[in-house]
């Protein structure tokens, strides 16, 4: 993650307000401050609000989209290490820690050669049950996993049992958040 950077939008761009998840359009030629650019998406401060801009719209900020560079396993299966790497590129727009180190991923199952092809099933939670960004975070998980080679289907289910707590953070996350 880099320090905050002020940029002028190059074109109109869709964003979602944080934490509500409400869709907004940021007009072209608007000054925004990039407060977080992790995992290919951007959190920006605009008009006194935080908003998330997806990586495929990086050009609106004068940035390049993040390219994934996984090698395709020759045996046609899904590589578990690649799945976890993809998950570690999914971030909460308010917290500079990935969903794995936040402890949001409760279960990851990879089923190769099913009737649906190669299927990944994720069971995850959010830091707060009422989080308006929940659909954005789960969509990010799904989209990033769909780009892992040989993946045919991704299912992401949300649960709040057990509810998330800060004890679920990895030591790396606690260090990043100043909790160690």
TrEMBL record:
Protein name: Fe-S cluster assembly protein SufT
The species this protein was found in: Marinobacter zhanjiangensis
NCBIfam families for the chain: FeS_long_SufT
Classification via InterPro entries: Fe-S_Maturation_MIP18, FeS_assembly_SufT_put, FSCA_dom_sf, MIP18-like
Every MIP18 family-like domain range: 81-156
Listed Pfam families: FeS_assembly_P
């Amino acid at each position: 993650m880099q320090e905050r950077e002020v940029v002028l939008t190059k074109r109109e761009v869709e964003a979602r307000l944080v934490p509500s998840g409400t869709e907004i359009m940021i007009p072209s030629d608007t000054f925004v401050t990039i407060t977080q650019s992790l995992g290919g998406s951007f959190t920006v401060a605009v008009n006194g609000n935080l908003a998330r801009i997806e990586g495929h719209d990086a050009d609106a900020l004068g940035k390049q989209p993040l390219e994934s560079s996984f090698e395709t396993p020759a045996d046609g299966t899904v590589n578990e290490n690649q799945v976890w790497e993809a998950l570690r590129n999914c971030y909460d727009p308010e917290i500079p820690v990935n969903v794995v180190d936040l402890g949001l991923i409760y279960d990851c199952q990879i089923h190769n050669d099913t009737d649906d092809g190669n299927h990944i099933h994720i069971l995850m939670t959010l830091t707060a049950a009422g989080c308006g960004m929940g659909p954005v975070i789960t969509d990010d998980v799904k989209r990033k996993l769909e780009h892992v080679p040989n993946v045919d289907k991704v299912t992401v289910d949300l649960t709040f049992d057990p509810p998330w707590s800060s004890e679920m953070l990895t030591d790396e996350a606690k260090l990043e958040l100043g909790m160690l």
